[in-house]
Amino acid sequence: MPELPEVESVRRQLDPELSGRRIEEAGWDPLPSMPREFVNVGLAEGRTIVSVGRRGKFLIAPLDGGLEMIMHLGMTGAFHFDHDDPYVRARLWLDDGRVLAFRDPRRFGRLAVVTAGDYSSVPTLATLGPEPLTDEFDAERFARTIATTKAPIKPFLLSQKPVAGVGNIYADEALWIARIHPSSRRVGRKRALVLHEAIRTVLSDAIEREGTTFRDYRMVNGESGRNASFLVAYGQVGKPCPRCGTPMRKYVLGGRGTTFCPRCQRP
DNA sequence: CACGCCTCCTGTGCGC
DNA sequence: TGCGCACAGGAGGCGT
């Protein structure tokens, strides 16, 4: 569910609610087969949340005492206040009397408390690429990075290494805009520069619409994002390409459903 | 080291 | 109706 625009929309609602709040108690429902689901969350007890930031799809909340709470929504994760249903996997009791609930049906999400800046237990965060909506995301460097990989362009984007926060939806969207075939292993400088801009465009547009909701993704206040009806590639199999009218096609690439225009996006 | 396959988990929708 | 299978927005482990 949650890619950068969804996580950013959650962050914008969480930050004003959590900043300055003390966590009085933390509780979670451990699943023996998922030892990485909630790591050291107990260390958050008694700590005060400084703010809620974000890197790629990770929420990062500095706590007092030199700690950070890392939060990842996985595929179905969501945060709500004073919420209760069978899919609430963890709760944080706050000093204002409210309870922050982490709801996550598929349990791919994660909460972890780490020493600030030590991401050795979160490999993807440790090797995360540049933030796409900051100057850190340099077009020429992106083009060079892309030129060095032998992997197909879409799985490479999903690795989070060339750029942070792009997932299955926005990868399909950006590649459609840039007219690049998802399986392409050779993306030259010119097309890479277009892709760079396309990534920034699809992500910032989606943030303005507060993300894409299909089923599980909800903001903290329970509302859905409004971006789903604006998608032109992801989930549009069989529909005419908005550019050339050719029916959009779908296949599996790197284990992920991938939709593209067979005419605009040549290998 | 880089790449690509498989797994973690639960629910849903589809074809038979 | 019931069953079995494919698939779902992500990341990480492991083999090659």
Please describe what this structure looks like.
The chain is of the alpha+beta class and 267 residues long. It has two domains: 4-126, MutM-like, N-terminal (N-terminal domain of MutM-like DNA repair proteins, Alpha-Beta Barrel); 139-260, Helicase, Ruva Protein, domain 3, CATH 1.10.8.50. Helix content is 24%, strand content 21%. It has six helices and eleven strands. It has a five-stranded mixed β-sheet, with helices on one face. Strand 4 (58-63) and strand 5 form a beta hairpin. Helix 1 (4-18) packs across helix 6 (189-208), helix 3 crosses helix 6 (189-208) and helix 5 crosses helix 6 (189-208). The protein is globular and about 55 Å long. The model has no long low-confidence stretch (mean pLDDT 97). It binds a DNA duplex (16 and 16 nucleotides) through helix 4 and helix 5.
Structural key phrases:
five-stranded mixed β-sheet, 2 domains, 6 helices, single chain, 267 residues, four-stranded antiparallel β-sheet, N-terminal domain of MutM-like DNA repair proteins, DNA-binding, Helicase, Ruva Protein, domain 3, alpha+beta, 11 strands, 24% helix
Q: Helix coverage percent of residues?
A: 10-25%
What structural class is derived from the secondary structure elements? alpha+beta
Count of strand segments: 11
* Strand order in the sheet with the most strands: 2-9-5-4-3
SSE order and pairing:
Blueprint: H1 4-18, E1 23-28, E2 38-39, E3 53-55, E4 58-63, E5 67-72, E6 78-81, E7 88-94, E8 99-103, E9 110-115, H2 123-126, H3 139-148, H4 153-158, H5 168-177, H6 189-208, E10 249-253, E11 256-260
Parallel strand pairs: 2-9
Antiparallel strand pairs: 1-7, 3-4, 4-5, 5-9, 6-8, 7-8, 10-11
Helix pairs in contact: 1-6, 3-6, 5-6
The chain binds a DNA duplex (16 and 16 nucleotides) through helix 4 and helix 5.
